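Input C-alpha cells:
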C-alpha cells in the first residue's frame, strides 16, 4: 500500500522520462550513461535544508512520534531562553554565496518543515528566493518528517529546480570566489566521498570484501542509524556495480548535484527510496544523499573523487581543543585557551574556499537537539561566532528583509 501511494504521488508529477539501464547485467557500464554537460553561469540553483527545532509545534510533534526517547528530550533548554535570534547561520551562508558566486546563482530554495515558518530574517517576496515545505516534496501520509535522509533525497522534486543545483546545509559558507573546477572537470562531477581516502567504517561496511556477499543487516550492527545509512548506501551500489572501496563518510561540504542522476537513483532503488521517505527519523536502511549520489556518479563514470582538504575546512566547536562535548555553557564551558583556539582558527583562514561551522555558538541545532544529555550551548562561543559572522560577511544580502 505504501509503495502504491508513493508511486502514485511521484509518477503523477511532470518529470522527464528516463532511460534506465540493466546495471546488474552491465555492471554499471559507463558507456551506457549519458554524461552531463557543465553547468553555466546563472544556471545553478542553491538548495539549503533548514530547520527551526526550537519551534514549539516542531518539538510537540517530534515528542509525539518519537516513542523511544525520554519525554524531556523535547523540553527547551534553557527554558527561559530568548528565541528571537536563533538559527541565523543561514543568513550568513546566503550572504557568502551572494558575495562570492552571485553570477552563478539562478534561484535559491529553502527547504523547511510544515511545522514552522521560514527564517524571519529572509524576504518573503524576493522573486528568486523560494521557501519549499516538506509537503511540496513528499506525500502527506509520511509527514511530518524529522529525517535528514528523506529530506536530502527529496530535493530533486522541487518544482522548477534547475538541472544543476548546489545542495547544502545551512552552515556551509564561501570564503573566496566560487571555482567551478572544484565541483566539475571535463564531463565529471567532482565529489569528496566517492571512494578514495580514509573511511571511518570497517572495511566490510565499505563493500570491500572480495568474493563475499554483502549482508548489510548483519554487518551494520553496532553502528548508529546515521552511520549505518552511509554504509547501506554504499552496499546497495556494491550489490549492483561490484566491489570496490567506496566512500561512506559525510564530507560536510556542498554537493554539486545533477538532477537527472537523482531521478535515476530513485527509479533504480524504489524500495529503498520509499523506505527512506517513510522513516520519520533517520534509520539504518535509509539512503544517505551524500554517500549515495557521490558513489553512484563514480560508479557510472560521471564522477571523480578529490578530497580537497585544502579547499574545504571544518570547525567543530565541541571538539577537544575548543570546548569538549558536552559543552553546555554551565558545568562544562569553553576555557580561555579554547576561545583563543577558535579565534586563531577563524582568523587564520586564508587559502580555503569553503567552511562548515558546527557546534555550540555557531549552530543552534546543538542547543535544541532532541537529546537532553547532549544539548550544548555556550554564550561565550556564540559571542565569538556572531562577531566573526558580522566581520566576515557585513553586507546584508538582497534576500534579507
Amino acid at each position: 500500500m505504501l509503495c502504491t501511494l508513493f508511486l502514485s504521488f511521484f509518477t503523477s508529477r511532470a518529470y522527464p522520462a528516463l532511460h534506465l539501464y540493466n546495471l546488474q547485467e552491465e555492471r554499471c557500464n559507463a558507456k551506457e550513461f549519458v554524461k552531463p554537460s557543465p553547468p553555466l553561469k546563472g544556471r545553478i540553483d542553491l538548495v539549503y535544508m533548514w530547520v527551526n527545532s526550537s519551534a514549539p509545534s516542531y518539538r510537540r510533534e517530534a515528542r509525539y512520534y518519537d516513542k523511544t526517547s525520554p519525554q524531556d528530550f523535547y523540553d527547551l533548554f534553557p527554558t527561559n531562553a530568548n528565541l528571537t535570534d536563533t538559527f541565523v547561520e543561514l543568513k550568513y551562508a546566503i550572504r557568502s554565496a551572494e558575495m562570492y558566486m552571485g553570477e552563478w546563482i539562478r534561484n535559491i530554495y529553502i527547504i523547511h518543515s510544515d511545522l514552522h515558518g521560514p527564517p524571519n530574517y529572509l524576504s518573503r517576496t524576493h522573486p528568486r528566493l523560494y521557501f519549499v515545505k516538506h509537503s511540496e516534496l513528499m506525500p502527506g501520509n509520511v509527514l511530518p518528517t524529522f529525517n535528514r535522509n528523506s529530506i536530502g533525497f527529496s530535493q530533486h522534486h522541487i518544482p522548477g529546480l534547475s538541472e544543476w543545483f548546489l545542495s547544502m546545509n545551512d552552515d556551509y559558507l564561501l570564503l573566496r570566489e566560487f571555482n567551478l573546477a572544484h565541483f566539475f572537470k571535463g564531463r565529471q562531477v567532482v565529489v569528496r566521498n566517492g571512494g578514495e581516502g580514509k573511511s571511518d567504517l570497517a572495511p566490510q561496511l565499505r563493500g570491500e570484501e572480495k568474493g563475499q556477499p554483502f549482508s548489510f543487516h548483519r554487518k551494520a550492527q553496532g553502528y548508529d542509524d546515521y552511520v549505518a545509512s552511509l554504509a547501506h548506501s554504499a552496499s546497495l551500489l556494491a550489490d549492483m556495480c561490484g566491489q570496490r572501496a567506496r566512500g561512506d563518510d559525510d564530507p560536510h561540504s556542498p554537493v554539486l548535484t545533477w538532477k537527472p542522476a537523482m531521478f535515476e537513483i530513485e527509479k533504480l532503488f524504489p524500495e529503498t527510496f520509499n523506505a527512506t521517505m517513510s522513516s520519520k527519523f533517520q534509520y539504518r536502511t535509509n539512503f544517505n544523499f551524500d554517500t549515495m549520489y557521490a558513489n553512484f556518479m563514480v560508479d557510472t563514470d560521471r564522477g571523480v573523487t578529490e578530497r580537497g582538504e585544502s579547499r574545504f575546512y571544518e570547525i567543530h566547536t565541541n571538539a577537544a581543543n575548543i570546548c569538549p562535548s558536552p559543552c553546555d555553557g554551565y558545568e562544562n564551558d569553553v576555557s580561555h585557551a579554547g576561545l583563543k583556539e577558535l579565534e586563531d582558527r577563524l582568523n587564520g583562514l586564508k587559502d580555503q574556499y569553503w567552511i562548515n561551522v558546527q557546534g555550540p555558538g555557531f549552530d543552534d541545532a546543538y542547543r535544541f537537539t532532541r537529546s537532553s544529555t547532549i544539548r550544548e550551548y555556550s554564550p561565550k562561543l556564540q559571542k565569538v561566532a556572531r562577531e566573526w559572522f558580522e566581520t566576515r560577511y557585513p553586507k546584508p544580502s538582497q534576500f534579507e528583509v
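DSSP finds twelve helices and eleven strands in the chain. Residues 312-392 form one domain.
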